[in-house]
Structures are given as C-alpha cells and as structure tokens.
Amino acid sequence: MVPPLPSPLQLYNTLTRRVEPLTPLQSPRVTLYTCGPTVWNYAHIGNFRTFLFEDLLRRFLEFAGYEVFHIMNLTDVDDRTIKAAAAANNSLDAHTAPFVTAFFEDRDYLRIKPAHVYPRATQTVPAMVELVERLLERGVAYAGEDGSVYFAIAKFPSYGRLSQLDTRQLKIGARVASDEYAKDDPRDFALWKRASPEDEAVGAAWDAPFGRGRPGWHLECSAMSLSEIRRRFGVETLDIHAGGIDLVFPHHEDEIAQSEAATGQPFVRHWLHGEFLNVRGTKMSKRFGNFLTARDLREQGVDAGALRLLFWQTHYRQSLDFNDAALDGAREGVKRLGEFRERLVQVPAPRAGADSSGIDPIAQRFETDFRAALADDLNAPRAVAALFDFVRAVNRALDQASTAPNVRGALDALDRSMAVLDVLPSMKAADSELTAWVEQQLAAREKARKAKDFREADRIRAALRARGVELEDTPGGTKWRVV
C-alpha cells in the first residue's frame, strides 16, 4: 500500500513567482500541456532536459494519484521548418517527417512516457483559423496592410504579467512578423502570416477567410491545446503548462494573450519552466561547438538511466552543467542501483514469519522522504539523496543479518520509486556489465586454481552462483550461463 502524500503537491508557478499547492480544475484529473520539438532538425539534449523534467512531473503526478491527460505538440510549420525545407529543396512534410520519427526514437531511448496525444501544427490548421476568427470578432486582432493578421496587445491590458515586462514603453501599432523576436520587445505579433512564395513552394500555405497564409508559431500552441481540452473535457483552461525557461517570452506570453482574449477564461492555472543545460560550463550552442543530440549519446553507448540520474541530481529550476565527470558519476550511481536491486532479488525466499523488522522501517522511511521531496516542487536531488541513503542502509542491514531477512518491502519500495525516476541500468547495459564482471571473476578463479588456492576458487564460484551464474568446467575451458 502506497502511503498518501504527506502534504499537497507544491509547485513553483512562474505566473505568481511562488511555490503553490497544485489545484486542478477538475481534480483528480490534471490536464498537462508541454511544448514539444520544432521538427526542423534533431532535438538536442538541452531540449531533452526540458522533456525529461516534464516526464518527472507527469510520472510523479500519476504516482501521487492524479489522472493526467498529457498533450505535447509537434511544431512542423514555422519560420525554421519552412526555411530548412526550402534549403533542402523539399516539401515541408517530407522534410519534417524523418525528424518526427527521430524525436520518437530519442524519446523512447530516454524512457520518456509518451504523451496521450501529439497534435501536429499542420494537422490542426482549422482550429487555428477558428481562433483567429474569434480574435477578429472580439476586436483584439486586425488585418495589417501586408495581408497578415496581428494581435493588438494594447487591447489586452494584462499583457506581460508572465514575463513581468514593463509595457509602458509599448510601441502602439509597431508589428513583428517573425516567430522569434527580440527579448523585452512587446509589439503586436503575427497570428496569421500572408503566404509568401517560399511558403507556397514547400506546401506551407492554407486558405482562410482572412487570406491565404499560415499560422504564427504562438498561435499554434494555443489552438492545439484549447481544441484538445475543449473537445475532450468541455473546458478552456489547462491545469499545467510546462516548457523551457526560454519560452516565457515571447511564446508563452503571447499564448496567454491570444487564448484569454478569445475565451475570456484563464488559460493556465500553473506555469512551470525548466532551466537551461550547459555543456562544460557554456550554454549549448552550435556556435560554441558543444551541440549534442540524444542520438549522439545513444551512439556513444550512454545508458539512458545514467542520463536521467544526472539530470535528477540538479533541480529543474537550476542550470545544469553537462560534463564527462558528472556523466561518469551518474553511470556509477546507476550501476550501484542495478547491483542493489539484483542483490534484493537474490536474497533467498524467507521462511514463514521471517524477520523483516530491520528492513521494513528503512523502506518506510525512504518512501516517506522520497514522496515528501518530490511533493516539494519536484525536488529530485533530495529524492535521489534519499534513494542512496536507502541503498546504503539496506545493504548494511543485509551485511549484518545472520539469516535471510524478508526484503519484499524494500524491493517494492525501490520499484515504486523507479516508476518515477526510472534510473536502473538498461537490460543491454546490465548484460554488458554482468558479462565483464563474470569474465573478471573467471580469470581470478583460474589464477587461484593454478596457485592451488581452492578456498579462493570456491569463494569466487559461490559469488558467481549468488548472482545467478552457473559454471561448467570442460576440457575446453570454463563455460558459464545465467540461470
């Protein structure tokens, strides 16, 4: 039985700049929207730091008993995707398709739970057109002389409250058409862009009552999220919207403006943002030559468990430095966790009524500390510290036990925590490490036998048997297999 949360789940809300209790609109259901990848190229590990923090959020929400409905969009039409498709002399769909496939492969490699739905911008254009029409009807959007439709932020008085921009210097009527514009530059932004020859050439143009064109990047997320929750649950307010800290302005600020101006309802109850990932002390960038993708790490044989553990050792609202030493430390930690679980599994089945008094209190204390840490604004570093304290304490108890104790409670507690953190070594990595260890033990045993140290040879054989490895001495050498 999983104990209840010791206190309500507390999360930092970017909108209020406070840690607040989670208050879903229709508890226990939680609607979660996370900004997904822009599929013009491979997602880098900075992107995946954000996606992994969102995975931790979702897993803990479900662990705590909430019914999460997770939406993650795929941005397959924007300035970058169109430019990349044109440069490759390709259609938009043909250019983005392999990067969509690559994202899902990287997601699975990193053990990120799939969202319930992945709306694609190009497949949700009717909802975007409808949203622009609502904004035009309400007088907060207008057609520019260039044929595009803009949002009039002067008619949305609360604009800037998420990013805490001072809009007193607002340039009335000044417009920006690009998807990404200068920080602290609040000007009317494009909701719908008039189709250019380049748009038409790659297949990124659609007919609309206000002119043939394509959606602006900010419009896309509002339309995709609102259409999903309105159709499924009859609401127009998300419980949680999460993303990287770089999206606060202009992307999320503009999402709030166009969504609330259209619906008259709060767009999001809780805003969560993850900090940047640095590589060897410098923000990751192609310009600095430290750009890494998830597939780079996979090709290098980096176990996903190690990468997840590395990320959990820094709070999601703090910058994380990715370097070789930190990754090596995480690899060692994951190896220890795998060995610990294997040790628990190998403990002989206890006799009826076997003593578990030395183990159960350790497991119960760990679960309490683990849940309390994550309920406190997803304090993963504290949860990881509790996990390794638990490992040390149980190992000590096993070392001191004169007879096989009942470790069922410890194993269950470990597995429940892994449902959230998921940092055990992958089967492939575990097999590789086991093979290397067995070969090392066999070499030591052969050396002991040649020295006629049969006690040491027997000890090594017993150690191998304890890990499920059976030996067979043959004229051609010693064979082994896992049983």
Secondary-structure blueprint of this entry?
Blueprint: E1 10-13, E2 18-21, E3 29-34, H1 45-63, E4 67-72, H2 79-87, H3 92-109, H4 125-137, E5 141-143, E6 149-151, E7 175-176, E8 188-194, H5 197-202, E9 213-215, H6 217-233, E10 238-244, H7 248-263, E11 268-274, E12 277-279, E13 282-283, H8 294-299, H9 304-312, E14 320-322, H10 324-346, H11 360-375, H12 380-400, H13 408-421, H14 427-450, H15 454-466, E15 469-474, E16 477-482
Parallel strand pairs: 3-4, 3-10, 7-8, 10-11, 12-14
Antiparallel strand pairs: 1-2, 5-6, 6-8, 8-9, 12-13, 15-16
Helix pairs in contact: 1-13, 2-3, 4-6, 6-7, 9-10, 11-12, 11-13, 14-15
Identify the notable features of this structure and list them briefly.
15 helices; alpha/beta; 483 residues; four-stranded parallel sheet; 15% strand; single chain
Silhouette? elongated
Largest sheet: 5 strands, mixed
What value does the average pLDDT take? 90
Radius of gyration: 27 Å
Structural class: alpha/beta
Give the percentage of residues in beta strands. Answer: 5-15%
